[in-house]
Amino acid sequence: MEQALIALGAAIAVGVPALATGWAQSKIGSAGAGALVEKPELSGVMIILVAIPETMVLLGFVVAYLIIG
Amino acid sequence: MIKEMSKIQLVGSKTQLDECIRLLHAMAVVHLETVPMDLVEERGILRRLPLEKDKLIEKESLEKAHERVKNLVFLLKSRPALTVPRYRIRGLLEEMGPVEERIKRLHAQKETLTEEVSSIDKYEKILRGFAPLISSLGGLNNFDIVGLTIERRRHDIIGLLEEEIKRITGGTYELYARAIDETTSGVILTFPRKYSGQIRYLILGEGISEIRLPDEYEVMSLASAITTMARRKSELPGLLRGLEDKLESVSDEWYPVLAGLLTAIEDELDEIGVLTYCAQTRYCFVMEGWAPRDMTGTIKREFSRLFGEKVVVRELEVKKEEEDIVPVYIKNPGWLRPFEVFLKALPAPRYRSVDPTPYIALFFPVFFGLIVGDVGYGAMLFSLGLFLGWQFRKKQKTETLIDIATILTVCGVSSIIFGLIYGELFGDLGERAGILHPILFDRVRALKTFLILTLGIGVGHVVLGLIIAAVNYIHRGKPREAVGKLSHLLLIVSFLTILGIMFKYVPEGLLTPGLAALVLSFVLLTTIEGIIGPLEIIRTLGNILSYMRIMAVGTASVVMALVANKMGGLEGSLIVGIIAAVLIHTLNIFLSILSPTIQSMRLQYVEFLSKFYEGGGRRYEPFKKR
């Protein structure tokens, strides 16, 4: 039982930030696609903006690792 | 690296201006600037150079010729262009008259035939269903046949239409309806010709579309239109092929010449355009621009050789406030140049800031290799990179595509090297076959080691970014900013040291110096950058943690490879297993191009370049031939 709860905790720790990252990236991505049509030179900035929310899922991954470890 | 630039000024006799511009054009090293207004106003005798009447006429005629040749080139099939010298422009423009007519005629014929093909395709579908019926009706004189299309969702209108027609004709009519496709129904209506006006008025009023045949078939009856369409349909491909062959042979003969002519005209127009950059006195002209410092000697020598003392080239002092507008010329050795492609996505760096190309050339492939880390995948990517590079060169594709292929090849090598270190060949196949064994650690089992390694790489990379920024500020004589970056560096290192002591990775003896450094860097940063300065540490720690993606994505990649091998080894049909394994490995190889590229790029752009890269510069664009 305890092991199952640990696994569930780890899954939530990585799963919820993953959803949050996906949601944030979808918003940034669609806005970015619109911006790129107008100004293609912003592609570098857009890669950076889209990549920023990934930190959330990475931190979630660390927490999950700590929970399991 | 970002090359040192010199500001140069050319002053000479106006009689030499055209020749001077031609020489600058041929040398292709000077980034021309408009002579600044303050200089023009300050020296009362200087004024802008107006375009003289003959130049304006020449410009207008060249622009017309440019439009004419451009339209013609657009109609031809692409071939490698020839170089056309300026003196051939007028002659070629006269010579191309007959061929221009021919190309336009061929193209018009091709367009007419293509249009006919598409209209036949469109009407054939509608008429085919009614063909037998129309043929039988075709013989009825004094009767009109009308074809209609009705959307299937408005199908009920057919009943209403029939009632109305019955009323108009007193029952002397025939109506046949059937589905043409999923959305449209076709209706054929035949009635005495004398009711034609009333019925067509009714159809128009109901907003129903009548099947209108293409112009050339309008005069025929529906029956003969169908027969003609079938005949034309079999003839048209042959006719189109004939026209294509003629266009191909005209393209072989004329495209290289016309494309060369177009470039020559554009060069001529550029030379006229440059006149607007100049200023003049009564007898002299003045031009200004930027050139790489190591080229100024050559420019002076060349002008002196050709014009003697009639044109003087001198270097101007670059004022401090002008540094922001100095064009930035990035020049790296050939083996580094492909990696300049990463800068294309960023605004140009500022003059005298750091060109990150050498660092990206080192770290991008290393991070890519750390993530992919498989000899098999690396070999595939290496071969793919070589193949694409060869194909792009053969097909004369853009430099950017060739650069990307080169980078893929380098990343393939890096993946092979890290594959040897991790002991991976298509996942654990190498180990199973006893060919490869992990040299450093096994990525799947030693997750913690891999995690610590990536975090260590993160600390090193971020610290290197801060050091580069500090050194650059010292080099540019900005001590305050340099101390700011060094304090930031000290804050990070001392904070990590204390963290290391807490988790017993660092000896406790370093606690006092660590704390002292932390306080000192905090005070320095607050003084230099205000209270917001020390808060940067949170962002930097986030940056360092971000390097864990190397481990996370890398592990995901190797686990997928292991899954592929497991599928291959499952009991049951060996062939199905092998096919499944090959499919999963293929998918993983494609993912191995996409995901590590994005992750490695992000680490460069967000984590590393944000520490020292200063955008907002202007790219160096020398006045050169197209």
How would you summarize what this structure contains?
Helices cover 88% and strands 0% of the residues of chain A. By secondary structure, chain A is an all-alpha fold.
What do you see in this structure?
The complex is a heterodimer of chains A (69) and B (626). With 69 residues, chain A is mainly alpha-helical. Chain A has three helices and no strands. Chain A has a single domain, classed as F1FO ATP Synthase (Up-down Bundle), CATH 1.20.20. The two termini of chain A are 17 Å apart. In chain A, 88% of the residues lie in helices and 0% in strands. In chain A, helix 1 (2-38) runs antiparallel to helix 2 and helix 1 (2-38) runs antiparallel to helix 3 (54-68). Chain A has helices spanning 2-38, 43-51, 54-68. Chain B folds into four domains: 5-49 and 278-328, Alpha-Beta Plaits, CATH 3.30.70; 139-220, Alpha-Beta Plaits (2-Layer Sandwich), CATH 3.30.70; 332-440 and 554-611, no CATH class; 445-545, no CATH class. In chain B, 62% of the residues lie in helices and 10% in strands. Chain B is built from 20 helices and twelve strands. In chain B, strands 1, 2, 3, 8, 9 and 10 form a six-stranded antiparallel sheet that branches. In chain B, strands 5-6-4-7 form a four-stranded antiparallel sheet, with helices on one face. In chain B, a hairpin with a 4-residue loop joins strand 5 and strand 6. Chain B is extended and about 115 Å long. The model of chain B has no long low-confidence stretch (mean pLDDT 87). The chains are: A mainly alpha (69), B alpha+beta (626). The interface between A and B is medium-sized, with 15 and 18 residues.
Number of helices of chain A: 3
- The number of helical segments of chain B is 20
Net shape of chain B:
extended
Binned, the helix content of chain A reads over 70%
CATH class of chain A: Mainly Alpha
